[in-house]
Structures are given as C-alpha cells and as structure tokens.
Structures
1.
Amino acid sequence: MKIALIGYGKMGQAIEKIAVAKGHEIVLKISIDNLEDNTIENIQQADVAIEFTGPESAYDNVVRCIEAGVPLVCGSTGWLNKYDEVTALVKEKNGTLLYASNFSIGVNIFFELNRKLAELMAPHADYDVSMVEIHHTQKLDAPSGTAITLAEQVMEKITRKQSWVNDTTGNPAELSILSERIDPAPGTHKIKYSSSIDDIEIIHTAHNRTGFASGAVLAAEYIAGRKGIFSMKEVLGL
C-alpha cells in the first residue's frame, strides 16, 4: 500500500516506522519544511493518506485529501467544529474518511469502558463526575480530542451534565475537564466519580506513541478500497 503522510512530526515518523515494517511504501511526506509539496497531484500518488498535523492546518488538509479522491485517516484534533461540513463533502465526492481522536487500541477499549461506566452511574446523582487529561507541553489544543470524546460519552449517558468546561466548576450541569501539560507525558486520561462515601476512577495511561501509530496504520489498511465514513469501532470490531 502506498501512503501519504500529511504531517511528519514525531507521530508521522512513528507511523512511517511501523508502516514500512509492515511492507507499505511512504510516497509523500509533508512537514513544515516542504508545504509546497502538499498538492492534490502529489497526494494522488497514494492509496491512502494519514493526516496528523495541528488545529490550524488540519481542516484544509482534510478537504485537500477528499478533493484528491484519496481515502483519509485523520488524527488531528481542534477542527471538529467543521466536521459536519467535511462529512457532507465526503458524501458528495463519494470519498472515504476515518477520523479518530485516538487510534490506540487500548484507548478505544477505554472508550467502551467509559460509556458503560457512565451508563451504570447515571441513576446515582450522589456521584459527581470530573476528568483530568495530561499531555506533553508540545500539545497545542486543550482539552485533548480524546478527553472531549470521553466527555461527550459521559454526557450522552448522564444527561444532568449538559456541557463541559476546561476548568474547575461549581455548576452541577457542567463537566469539569482539567488539562495539565507535563513533559514527557504522551497521554493520560482519568474519569472520576466522587461521592461523600467513595470514589470510582478509571484511568488510561499511554507509555509512548507506538499505540497511536500502530492504530493509525491499522486504520489505513482498513479503509483502503472502502467508501464512506468510518471510526475505530469498525476497525476494531467493537
């Protein structure tokens, strides 16, 4: 499989290492040093594109890949205010998009645990729920896309929480997400249910980027040759 890497930072390099080891070919690498090569024509050399950049460039990269007609795996966060617009374009162009806030197999299992725990806790109003996410200092967006996904899952089941805030809060209708930036932390997410009697907490801690990178390659292998909009749930059969 021929892969275009849109974003060749630490994550892109980790993806390259895993992809090449699995026998895939990297035909395009886009970094801040060669943005002029980020063209539809160059992207079309690939069977699939993997996009890991930043909030300021992700949307334009996603649209460019869709316009190129190349199936896209996107792991960038901070652009989801335009997600509906993008999915409409995918349908219009009969394209392929797989977006995930986190590609780690462990995190996607954690998502399922989070959803189930929230469902179990929903009838118990004595417990208040809050979240903490910890990442390295180079991560620009806060809260993390993974934290937002976790928060949305909680609010889907616990309807007394109507919105999340990236701060502490005394409003019972708000879900607090605290963001900490500490090097060299690759990513920790904690969901805590607290009452006057006890606490219940689930935690996922990443040790390195390997889980994210291997999941992204797995997602690329899955969408190659497919049409439509996918998530890691389909890739992992969850």
2.
Amino acid sequence: MSKQLENAKNLYLRGIRDGEIKEVHEHYMGASYTQHSTGVPDEKAGFASFFEDFFKRHPKRDITIVRTIEDGNFVFVHVHQKLNDGESQWVTADIFRSDDEGRIVEHWDVIDAYPTSIGDFDPIYGDFSLTDLDKTEDNKKLVRRFLVDVLQNGEVDLFDHYVSEGLIQHNQEIPQGGSAYKEYLVDKQVNYDFVFKVMGQGDYVVAYSKVWIAGQDYAHFDIFRLKDGKIVEHWDNKEVMPAKADLTNLGKF
C-alpha cells in the first residue's frame, strides 16, 4: 500500500471513525489542508472544529472503505458510513491530493444518502479488484471521450460506441442495461457542465464533474468499470451544489 493511500484510509478510519483528530493532523495531513467538503471549514483547524461537533452528534460510527484507486498524487475512496447503529447511512465519494511525502493536503467529496430499499445491485457494494493495469491510459481516454461526446455535447448516437448493452447499473433510479442508462440521460436532460477531474487505475475510471440533471446543478461522481474497450459497470454519487452564500470553504471544485 502506498503512503498516500495509507494516509487517506487513516484519515477516514483513525480520524472520522475513531475520533483521533490529533493523530490525523500530526501523521496523515500535510502542513496545510484545503477543504472542498460542504459545510466543513478550510484548513486543519476547520477539519477539527467540524468533526468535534460531528462526534457529539454521531457517537457510533461504522465506516467501510469499499474501493480505492490511485492516479499520480491523487487517491479516490468510495465509502459507506453507518452512523448511530444505522440511524443514518451515507455513501461518500472522495478525492484526496497528497504532497510529495504522501501526506494529504486537499480534499473533495460528494455525500449522498444510502437508500432504504435496494434494487438489483447495491449503490456502493460489489466485487472489486483492479485488473488491466496496462490499459489505464486507454480507459481514461475512452471515458474522457464519452464525457465530451455524449454527456457534454449530447451526441447520444455515439452512446453505444462507449457503453455495453449489458451494463451493470448501481444507480437506483436507472434500470439495468445500456439502453436504460441512455434513456435516463435523455429523459432527465443530463448535461455535464464541466468535468473537473478524471482518475484511472486499470479497469476503473472515476470522473468528478458539475452536472445538470432535470433542472438542478449537482456535484457528481461517476465510477466506471471498463472491459474490452467499453463501460460495463457504473456507480455514481451526487450532491446538490451549495449556494455561494452558504460556503465555508472554496466550494465543491
């Protein structure tokens, strides 16, 4: 395990789960910490002040890191949070940026509720192992083209070039299969306003974007698994974009 991945995991497990904020500051974060999470003030002091209150409200915290990928000095983690014996449950998609020593210096996330009823496939869980490491750059290029051609430029006729008809879908609003995903994009008038970050490792590619869905702006993560040059599995996570007046840091991007 790389140092940056170890530090990102420890920030979650030792920090948020176990409440060891001082340990996080001293061992896992860098000298500065730029924050983009909604409602969390900037820098290390802001992290501490937010979670001191969070721990009081949620004394029981069960956190599962389901999947991770690394790309350069960035780490993506996909997390299930179960608070106060399941009183509330969240799916969190996070990107951490590390410094040259692997310490975490910047953080972006999107937090969405874990649904009360589950369809064919869970919104976060599923088999996870990284394969096709030699195809990382090809897979990232394919996803970027999909994002631009279909999701930004609306060239829906190119959809089948990128997405398998047998697509496994984890979004609980969308039925299984590529055709259902395409229909959802059209019916909801989904448009990717801009793509902030694309990360990849092997057969997994993650995109973090600002997305317009049915008249509402969202900060939006997509997690794609690819096989033989097509997207074959899809998870996503979205959060309504906060108003500028409500920001306590630099904002979602």
3.
Amino acid sequence: MRALDALAAGTAGLRARRVRATLSALGIAIAIAALVAVLGVAESSKRQLLDELGRQGNLLTVATGKTFDGSPTPLPLTAQPMIARIPPVQSTTAVGNIDGATVRRTDLIPPVNTNGINVMAAQPSLPQTLSVRILRGTFLGPVAEQYPQTVLGWSAARSLGIDRLTAQTQVFIAGRYFTVVGILAQVEVAPEIDTAALISYGVADRLFGLGGVPTRIYLRVDPDQVAAVTAVLGSTASPENPRDVQVDRPSDVLLARIQAKETFVGLFLGLGAIALLVAGVGIANIMVISVLERRAEIGLRRALGARRRDVAAQFLLESALLAVIGGVAGIGLGCLATLVAARLGGNPVAIPPQAPAAGLVAALLVGALAGLYPAARAARLPPADALRTL
C-alpha cells in the first residue's frame, strides 16, 4: 500500500469519529502541555535567577557574631573605612540594627504587633551598592539626617499596607512618627532589607544612641577578585578578632534556589510522564473499541485483497496521528502557558528548544505504543468472521 493510501486510510477513522478523536487527543495535549510548561516556566525562572546572579555575584557582606535573638553584633567603627581601602573594592555601604524599636502604622496598634519589621540605620549609598530600585519616592537624603524620615523595604511596606506615598504617609517607630519617603523594590540577595524600616544614621545616633556603629557591611568588588577579597575581609574588618567576622556571598542563595528549582522540575516532569502514560492508555482503549466497531470494514478490506500488514499499518497510523495531533496542540498550549506565567512573574520568556521537540517525539512514541495491540488485533481478525457482521 502506498504512503498516500495509508495516510488516507489512517485518517478515515479520525474524520468519521471527530468527537471521539478530539477527546482522545485532548488527553495527550494536556500531558504534553504540562511537560512543555514545566520546562518553559522553570527555564524562564532560571534565566531570571541567572541574570540576577550575574548582577549580584560580586556582592559580599561582612558581619560579626550574632546575639541570642539572631541579630548581628556591632562591627568596629574602623571596619568600613578599612574595607573601602582594599583596591578591588568598588563601593561599600553599612547598616546598623536598632534593637527593641518597633514599627507600627499608628500608635493605636499594640507594640506586640510588629509584623516582623526591623529598624535599621542606613547610609545613602545603600541603593547603589545593593543595586536596588526605588519603587516609590526617594531614598534617605540630607534632610533625613536631621528629621524623622524612613524608607520601607518591600515586605515591610506590604505588611503595613502601604503601596503609595503622600506627604501624610507616616509610620510609628519607637514612640514617634516618621514620614515615609520611599519604598524599595525587593532585594533577592538581602532579605533583611526587605523586612526593614530604614532611617538615617544621623537620626539613629541622635534618637537611639547608635553611635554610627555598623552591624553589617555590604561591598561590591571586582568580579575577578571576589575570592581574593574574601580571604582578607576578616582580618581587615576586625584585626583583633578576625575569626569572629562572618563573610558571606549573598549570591549563594540564588545558586541554592536554582538547585531547588531543578529538583522540583524533575518531580513535575515525572508527574507529567505519568499523565502522558494515562493518556496513552486512553488512546489504546479507544483504538480497541474502534477495531471492534469496524470489524465489517476490516473484513471487507481483507476480502478485497488487503494484507494483514496493511490493516495493521492503518490502525497503527491512526493511533500515531491521534497522538501527534494532541502533541502539537499540547506544545502550543504549553508555550502559551509559559508566556503567561513568565509575564505575570516578571521573568524573561525562555522555552528550551528541546522541550517542543521532546514533547512531539514523546507523543508519537506513546501513540505508536498505544496502537500496537489494537493494530495486531485488527490484523489477526479472520476475514470470514469479520464479514459476518455485515
């Protein structure tokens, strides 16, 4: 039988039973869409994390030991200027924890309802060193050194229900009102900033007696000299107690997140493979029913000279076409789902080229395997027995 004749015979059953064929292909489409979407969404998220990793890979933090509640203990006053003298260091900024200070929307809220917001003194160089965007308003400037003004981290602003700023937007910090002059974007590599209310060092020294002491220093270094700078930061920040200095590379958090996402991708791919297997069983079941319903057609074709392999090829091709149609539809749905998820998450759209190809091959393989038994059963059907159903 010629290829065109085989294709016409294979599609005849699909055209005659369009609703059944559509429902059967839908199972394959959903499974393939899930597989493509999992790979696409994971790749888009990974691409965004890798971009962030490239921007934050040269960021280091310096802190000493921690107190009983987990807060870092102060660093020497000389730590930041000494670190800034290291040649590969490009910029530095420091923050200082203000212990016991609560942040509330108004003084009518009980002090115990702090929503986990910390109060930190911050230097004007913080946005530049951390490469953080200011979503609303401005950062702490010269006026903030003299008057009670604050900038809220992303999570802190959400906890307080503040999403826009006016001249009357205030929060109640440690017994007095502070005007909110800015809201920061989320800082992936410095979550402590996200949950903080930032005030100037001048106000922190005057109202809370901070004394200009830093508890954490952030620094940007030459990307090619990260390891070398890390090796000398402890002794530079605290020459008397270098072992007590904790040096971290915040971008390691991004690496951990990438690895965690890859683990979950494997899990979801396994679930998608199970869904594809179930869809294949559904196609096999439909094809067996089709063989039973078309016994007369099979007997007539055999009586007119069709060979067993021609009959088997017809049903095998029909099963494979059914799966391929579902696979193509599933690839389209998976790409669309990836696009929507990436846009909603603010990530770049990235679909691995192998994902659509692998989905189509998987659909074809499942369709071929699902059609093996129905095709063999149709080929073994004796013409005389089949013609009795006419």
